[in-house]
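Form 7-S
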Amino acid sequence: MYKDINYDFNDLFPKKIRDEFLFPIDSYRLFLKGLSINPSLFFHKWSNVNTQSIIDKYWKPNTKSDWKWSLTFPFFSLLENYINAVNNPIIIGFSGLPGSGKSTLGFWIDSVARELFLDIRVISLDDFYLPGQEMDIAMDGNPWNVPRGFPGSHSLDLLNHSLDTFLKTGILTCPTFDKSLRDGKGDRSGWCESKPKVLILEGWFVGCEPSSDLYRTDDLAEDEFNLSLSQSEKDYRILVQESLIEYSKIWKKFDKIWHLKSTQFNNTILWKSQQEDEMIKLKGSGLKGNNLTNFIRMIQTSVPQKSLSFINSDTTVEINQDRRIKSLKTIDYNF
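Output:
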């Protein structure tokens, strides 16, 4: 860890950056310290003109300073520390509700890592969705009438094999999944092979553990979230919990877990709607109407909301409905 110097963050970080922070500057100092990031070197690196010329082209329009300086830059700097300090391949889990910004962050990291010739790769749990026909069989009869999405819709044997092979050999072989195919039902669209040193696996229920008492959780859900769960939803949630037992074996392969946590679970209603609108604009196909409503209902009810809101993460970045960062919390990473 860097030597702890009492940096004056008010001098180090310009006012135009600090003014976009919704959290105390001292919590930011502690956050960087916990990630073993030297604030002075960190600021000068990411504000460097040459660095800016590389990274600026991968931002979405109107990306806020807090998203850059308190999530993206710290996370990428941590990944660089891993590359310099760790000899063996490692996997980091990244969790966040649908539409929270995981894929946008992943695209930025993949793109900048490629530009800087760094062995970092981001893949999605969604890439391991079952192929089309297998997916249709697995999803048949679910109470939300959705084509994919919840635990039980992935090729877990393939995922286990791909991650184990990566950890042993450094070679990653994984499928890709295109959600726009089959009129928005999605299908496997190809394969890719790479040899990263640090792998990030992102997904909306990554790190989520099975509930120890689902019946009590469901009773609480009725009171706290007013979900009005149908009997078929309650019954099917038991099957989902059984699936989560197998997924939890995947989480054990992670070195660390980051959680992009929503201040309110219902923020995902807006986020998912926006996400599908963008997909329709980009690819001409996506979820809309009843299909979108059903998918959002699945997100809200297939897995207990408390399980998704309290991931056992090493680093937690909390965001509000506007995806502005409200708080930061991390363990101490010692390199």
